[in-house]
Structure formats: structure tokens, C-alpha cells
């Protein structure tokens, strides 16, 4: 993306609601706002699916699996992803076993992703959440390579729930360099201002996970500094 005008940024946003206390009414409001803002998709918990297609318009549906810890058996993640697709999800954001990455067991990371990929074939989009704030640079690179080898479509920084934090410009740059345009890069977790969104896009993000989408889009022309990027939480 070479422009960061609000309409262009909106078209790469997953408008996100993953709070445990979310209700069907909250999801309905999310969808209505998504259509008003012109975002790419809504991202909701799998238990909130299906969403009535007539309410969506052109908005896609994304969901999560193995969320937020990633400490689920791969078989369970695969089943959860398959059920979500059956319930209308176009995209699945899966969480890896971060401990396997910390241990350097990237073959296990790859196998975990591959099992989910086998359960949700393309055109379903598979994004892989690596919790970049909890990893070293070497571990980030290893996870990105594992995701690519397993057939994922995107690598994603964060769940937004990990205590180490969310997206950072450095992590996005490193992820983008590693996948070299062969996979997308989704920045998520703590992107609350237009300045933060601009910084992530400049670093190589091709998708943004936002919960406060209206505020971010509305502040794209503000002077808020890049120091607001990379806070934890949605």
C-alpha cells in the first residue's frame, strides 16, 4: 500500500471483537459498523458464528482458533477451524504453541499449522499468530518460515491478549522481510491511533487487526506520534 488515506486503510482492516463478554448484539453492532466504515472483514470468536450473510454485504468473516493461548492439541485446532468454516468463516487466525517456538521446535510449529491448513483448504485464508512480542528475532524468523512451509497465507503478530504486548514496528519489519511478499503480514494488538496504523503499514503490514477502527481511521490525519504503536491488547 502506498497511501494511508482512511478509505484505503479501511480496506485492509479486520474489525475485531474478541472480548469474552461479547454478546450477539455486540456482534450485530460490529457488523453494522464494519459496513459503515468499509473494512475488509469482521473478526469474531468462533462461538459467535454464523453471521447472517444478508447483514454482511461485502464484509468478510474472520475468526480465531486455539485462541488465545495456542496450547491446544493440533487436532482440536483443526476441528475448531473446520467448524468455523462450516459456520461461514472466510478466514481463520490460528495461534501457534508459543512454547514450541521458544524451545526452537519449529518442526512442531510447522506441523501444528499444517494440520489446521489441511482442515481448511483454500480459498479459506489461514493466518498464523506467533505472539511476536514474546519471541526473539531468531524465533520470529523461525515461526515465519514454519508458517510458509506449512502453507499459511499470512503471519500475524499477536493475539492482543499476551502480557508481553502486541504488535511492534520492528516485528512487522522482520516478519515482512522473512516472508518476502509470499505471505501477507497482519499487525494486531494495541494499534489505537492513525500514527500507529501508518507505522505498521510502512513496516510491511498488509492487514491490520483493529478493535477501535473508527478512532484509528479518524485519526489518520492527526499528528499523533508513532510512539503509540505496539501497545498490548485489542
Structure summarized in a few sentences:
This protein has 10 helices and 8 strands. The protein has an 8-stranded parallel barrel, surrounded by 6 helices. Belongs to the DeoC/FbaB aldolase family. DeoC type 1 subfamily.
Account of the protein in words:
This protein has 234 residues and is of the alpha/beta class. It is built from ten helices and eight strands. Helix 4 (74-86) packs parallel to helix 6 (106-119), helix 6 runs parallel beside helix 7 and helix 7 (137-150) packs across helix 8 (169-179). It is globular and about 45 Å long. The model is unreliable at 223-234 (pLDDT under 50).
Task: Based on the model shown, name its key terms.
eight-stranded parallel beta barrel; TIM Barrel; 10 helices; disordered C terminus; alpha/beta; 234 residues
What is the helix content?
40-55%
Approximate strand percentage: 15-25%
Instruction: Please report the total strand number as a whole number.
Output: 8
Number of helices: 10
Q: How many domains make up the coordinates?
A: 1
Instruction: Label the CATH architecture.
Output: Alpha-Beta Barrel
Kindly, what is the distance between the CA atoms of the first and last residues, rounded to a whole number of angstroms?
A: 23 Å
Write down the overall geometry.
Answer: globular
Largest sheet data: 8 strands, parallel, barrel
State the low-pLDDT regions, or none: 223-234
Spatial sequence of strands, sheet with the most strands? 1-2-3-4-5-6-7-8
Can you give the mean pLDDT? 94
Computed Rg: 16 Å
Q: In CATH, what is the class?
A: Alpha Beta
CATH-derived topology: TIM Barrel
CATH superfamily: Aldolase class I
Overall structural class, as computed from helix and strand content, comes to: alpha/beta
Order of helices and strands: HEHEHEHEHHEHEHEHEH
Amino acid at each position: 500500500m502506498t497511501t494511508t488515506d482512511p478509505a484505503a486503510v479501511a480496506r485492509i482492516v479486520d474489525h475485531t471483537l474478541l472480548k469474552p463478554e461479547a454478546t450477539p448484539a455486540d456482534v450485530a453492532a460490529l457488523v453494522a459498523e464494519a459496513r459503515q466504515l468499509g473494512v475488509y472483514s469482521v473478526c469474531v470468536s468462533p462461538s459467535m458464528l454464523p453471521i447472517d450473510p444478508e447483514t454482511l454485504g461485502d464484509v468478510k468473516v474472520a475468526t480465531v482458533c486455539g485462541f488465545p493461548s495456542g496450547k491446544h492439541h493440533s487436532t482440536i485446532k483443526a476441528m475448531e477451524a473446520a467448524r468455523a468454516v462450516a459456520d461461514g468463516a472466510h478466514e481463520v487466525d490460528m495461534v501457534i504453541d508459543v512454547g514450541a517456538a521458544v524451545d526452537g521446535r519449529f518442526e512442531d510449529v510447522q506441523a501444528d499449522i499444517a494440520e489446521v491448513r489441511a482442515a481448511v483448504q483454500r480459498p479459506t485464508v489461514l493466518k498464523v499468530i506467533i505472539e511476536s512480542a514474546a519471541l526473539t528475532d531468531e524465533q520470529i524468523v523461525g515461526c515465519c518460515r514454519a508458517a510458509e512451509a506449512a502453507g499459511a497465507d499470512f503471519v500475524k503478530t499477536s493475539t492482543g491478549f499476551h502480557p508481553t504486548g502486541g504488535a511492534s514496528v520492528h516485528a512487522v519489519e522482520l516478519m515482512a522481510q522473512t516472508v518476502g511478499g509470499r505471505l501477507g503480514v497482519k499487525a494486531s494488538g494495541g494499534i489505537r491511533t492513525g500514527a500507529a496504523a501508518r507505522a505498521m503499514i510502512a513496516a510491511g503490514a498488509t492487514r491490520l487487526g483493529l478493535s477501535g477502527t473508527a478512532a484509528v481511521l479518524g485519526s489518520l490525519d492527526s499528528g499523533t506520534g508513532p510512539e503509540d504503536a505496539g501497545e498490548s491488547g485489542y
